[in-house]
Amino acid sequence: MPLVNKIQIIGHVCHDKVPEGYILGGTASYCSIFAKKLCPSVALLSSYGPDFQFKETFDQLKIDSTIIDSEQTTIFENTYTATTRVQYLHSQASDLLITPSSILSDSDFLFLCPITNEIRIEENTLSNYKGLKAATIQGWLRDFAADGLVMPSLPDLSLFSNLDIIIMSDDDITGFDQQLTEELKELVDIVVITRGERGAEVYQSGTSQLYPSFPCEPIDLTGAGDIFSIAFLYEYARSNQISAAAAYAHAAASLSIEGKGVSAIPSHDQILKRQQFYNKRYL
User: Which percentage of the chain shows pLDDT scores above 70?
Assistant: First the structure.
């Protein structure tokens, strides 16, 4: 089976504001940390300000970080009602303009993971890249009110036409799920929708398959979708098999929510052991 030697991840790392101060947030953060457990080389393209508190986390893991200068770091705050999450953007780091020179040609796959619509892709940037091209589109489905309230918004979907895989959650697409899914299926070869404890639905070439999630006792759901995304892409890059990628991703995500924060991010060996149980039960 082919090895995955290098992964490139693009998107904002951020601060999540909590009563105690700040914790590390952002899809790019969780994905980079997890990816480093799976392959020897991880390259991160991001932006943050001098106020960013978690630079050492990436330095200690020897993640190859290219940081676009910014006056401030992206900061989110989540508040919760009985039924919903309300999210506010308090500040935003510099946009990331992606040009052909931004893309590492020797990476096995490229993962775009915006959180504030911060990624701008120059025309034809992705057309010559030979690796697997993927994105989670949560950050492109957001607009922001004057007070920072995060609101749903549909982007120009043509910007996804050069991608191989799109990954999103059903929470991301609430309100326009059917319209968005149908249009993306026409543009992108593989569309993955995670549906929490119900599993993940994968659309490819006019067919769909629901892969059940692995039963577990969740402690902290933070970052589970990010872990699922990298795990899916990593295994698909290795095996070129949707079923293997879904099984590996569910195994990884279930392990990650059985603990708290980045400390619960599993290793490859832990995932393989759980994947064996998944394969016996569901595949």
Answer: 99
CA 112/CA 251 separation, integer angstroms: 23
φ/ψ (deg, to 5) at 159: -70, -10
> Are residues 46 and 11 in contact, defined by beta-carbon separation less than 8 angstroms?
yes
- From CA 88, how far away is CA 76, in angstroms rounded? 6
Q: Which of 222, 224, 247 is nearest to 234 (CA)?
A: 247
Is residue 110 within 8 A of residue 102, CB to CB? The reply is no
Question: What are the residue ranges spanned by the domains of the chain?
Answer: 6-282
- What's the average model confidence in pLDDT over 201-205? 94
Residue 21 has pLDDT above 70, yes or no: yes
Report yes or no on whether pTM surpasses 0.85.
yes
Q: Distance between CA atoms of 270 and 117, rounded to whole angstroms?
A: 34
Answer whether 1's CB lies under 8 Å from 107's CB. Answer: no
The conformation of residue 117, written as its DSSP 8-state character, comes to S
The pLDDT assigned to 266 comes to: 93
Local structure of residue 68 (DSSP, 8 states): E
CATH number for 6-282: choose from 3.30.70.120, 3.40.50.300, 3.40.640.10, 3.40.1190.20.
3.40.1190.20
